[in-house]
Amino acid sequence: MNESLKKQRIIKAFSSRADNYDSVATVQRIVASKLAKRIKKLSLQMNSRILEIGCGTGFLSTHLIKDFSDSKIMLTDISSSMLDKCRINVGDVPQYRLLDGEYPEGINGSFDLIASNLTFQWFCDLQKGIERLCKFLAPNGSLIFTTLGQKTFKEWRLAHHVLGLICGTPQYPSIDNFPNKEGLFYHIDEELIYQRYNSGYDFARTLKLLGAKEPVINHKLLSPSSIRRLLNSLQGEFIVTYHILYCEVKI
Ligand SMILES: C[S@@+](CC[C@H](N)C(=O)[O-])C[C@H]1O[C@@H](n2cnc3c(N)ncnc32)[C@H](O)[C@@H]1O
């Protein structure tokens, strides 16, 4: 599968779930609020310019608008349905723009802050995406984002492994192997969040309702009988790790 097909599938998956997203995105909401606290500590000047990548339905956007009311904020997402939902939740004050954040073409000017919550794990090439975004940073500007780390969903991967099945969850980076580029300065913190589900089925259903179901490129989907075996092995409470990387990049 090529990159453009993968993007189309991501857009379709999130667009079809824009109405359900808020009711199931518990971890995303928690992480958005923690990221917002970090961003608030930055000493942003009055009238600064802020760009958000992958705003979704507006969990982080709501904080940004409240905390930086004198800033010029542009909210972007690759899915127009997510943007529409965001506008309903957040209102008409910020600017909205349909944008693939990995290829931020056609954006004018530079930004004092580029922020993003739990979106960069959908990039096809994380390092190149970060490099392109950094070109839009104003002097002293920061790119601040959260993304998923290596231990994310380790219980789900293990359950596949035990049954000899191949898991479609992407390999996320750790702090140690985080894609790094000379000339960019990174600060990364990490956190493990343990989220409780009623069962493996409940976990898989939640990912589907979030729109977060696109597997790694060329993953062969499990057969119905393999899915049945997997979910049978995960009956009862299922606790799943979300490994969150909080990253700040400066030029
Ligand atoms: C897991 S949701 C997170 C949404 C929001 N930031 C939040 O915290 O709830 C991922 C969002 O990223 C968007 N997305 C995925 N790939 C993207 C890309 N390349 N550029 C911009 N947005 C993207 C999806 O449409 C979706 O709205």
Question: Can you describe this structure in just a few lines?
Answer:
This protein is α/β, with parallel strands linked by helices and 251 residues long. It contains 9 helices and 7 strands. The protein has a single domain, classed as Vaccinia Virus protein VP39 (Rossmann fold).
The name of the CATH architecture is 3-Layer(aba) Sandwich
Radius of gyration: 18 Å
Q: What compounds sit in this structure?
A: S-adenosylmethionine
**Integer tally of domains:** 1
Average pLDDT, rounded to a whole number, is 95
Number of helices: 9
Inertia-based shape: globular
SS-based class: alpha/beta
Low-confidence stretches: none
Largest sheet: 7 strands, mixed
Query: Which sequence of strands runs across the widest sheet?
Result: 3-2-1-4-5-7-6
What's the CATH topology label? Rossmann fold
- Helical fraction equals 25-40%
Q: Which sequence of SSEs, written as H and E, runs from N to C? A: HHHEHEHEEHEHEHHE
